[in-house]
Automatic annotation (TrEMBL):
It comes from the Bacteria. PROSITE patterns: HTH_LYSR. Transmembrane segments: none annotated. The lineage of its organism: Bacteria, Bacillati, Actinomycetota, Actinomycetes, Kitasatosporales. It comes from Streptomyces albospinus. InterPro entries: LysR_HTH_N, LysR_subst-bd, WH-like_DNA-bd_sf, WH_DNA-bd_sf. This is LysR family transcriptional regulator. Belongs to the LysR transcriptional regulatory family. SUPFAM superfamilies: Periplasmic binding protein-like II (SSF53850), Winged helix' DNA-binding domain (SSF46785). Pfam families: HTH_1, LysR_substrate. Keywords: DNA-binding, Transcription, Transcription regulation. Residues 3-60 form the HTH lysR-type domain.
Length: 269
């Protein structure tokens, strides 16, 4: 069967809001129409995606899987449509993916000053699969943190950044100037791999609520600074390498120019 992208977008919006009324408002369609479209989509797929009650909407196991797939499919399709339009209009565009907390703006400004006719854009890279925008075509180059699947990619090392322990501001350790890994023995650490679909906002909300401590890159802690959280350097924690990543088979001059400019710019920041 052919996947109906319009219905997939409808489903993804309902899944995001967990509410038909709010989803219908965002989509600018009537709620009964949206409900019929979702039921039709479920019939086409042959599986139940949503469990509806009078107060809430929950995802089934199949619904959760489809929502995860939709996060990749819909942006990838949108990027493909943009590339087609760029070709039709004779436009040049460079899209850069970036990991949370990493700032690529200096490199983009330096590149734009030399290539003013090129349109630039950015897309965020999710922390559990930072290479995804490079593989699904949404971005040509990424400013990322290792480690990730590097197969088929050319990697240019940029630098290192330390990890810090992020904890509630009222935690007994928060008054210290720095920590060692031994100081964290016995503390409840948030297990990142088991919460791979959670956003950073959720992660920091859990920390602030007293659910545990997390080791995060310093730039991430600074980007999500809030008064009820504290972050302290962990002197013996291994640092995280930052890098530029680009598909190994892409050798366009424009892309090479960006990588050269970004390498020089980001290594000096």
């Amino acid at each position: 069967m052919d996947l109906d992208l319009r219905k997939l977008r409808y489903f993804a919006t309902v899944a995001e809001h967990r509410h038909f009324g709010r989803a219908a408002e965002q989509l600018y369609i009537a709620q009964p129409v949206l409900s019929r479209q979702i039921r039709s989509f479920e019939e086409e797929l042959g599986c139940t995606l949503l469990v509806r009650t009078t107060r809430s909407v929950e995802l089934t196991a199949a619904g959760k899987q489809l929502y995860d797939e939709a996060q990749q499919i819909l942006p990838s399709v949108a990027a493909a449509v943009q590339r087609v339009r760029d070709v039709d209009q004779g436009a040049q565009r460079l899209v850069v993916a970036f990991s949370p907390g990493l700032h690529v703006s200096d490199a983009i400004r330096a590149f734009t000053s030399r290539h003013p006719g090129v349109e630039t854009d950015v897309v965020p890279a999710r922390w559990w699969e930072p290479d995804r925008p490079l593989r699904d075509g949404r971005a040509q180059v990424g400013y990322l943190r290792r480690s990730f699947d590097e197969s088929g990619l050319r990697i240019v090392p940029i630098g290192h950044e330390p990890k810090v322990a992020c904890m509630p501001a009222a935690h007994p350790l928060a008054c210290r100037q720095e920590l060692t890994s031994a100081d964290l023995d016995g503390e409840r650490m948030l297990d990142v791999p088991k919460r791979r679909t959670s956003s950073l906002e959720e992660k920091f909300e859990l920390i602030a609520s007293g659910h545990g401590i997390a080791l995060v890159p310093l730039s991430v802690a600074r980007s999500y600074s809030r008064p009820d959280l504290a972050h302290l350097p962990v002197t013996d924690a291994p640092g995280i390498e930052t890098c530029l990543a680009v598909a190994a088979d892409r050798r366009e001059k424009l892309l090479r120019d960006f990588v050269d400019i970004a390498t020089a710019t980001l290594r000096n920041t």
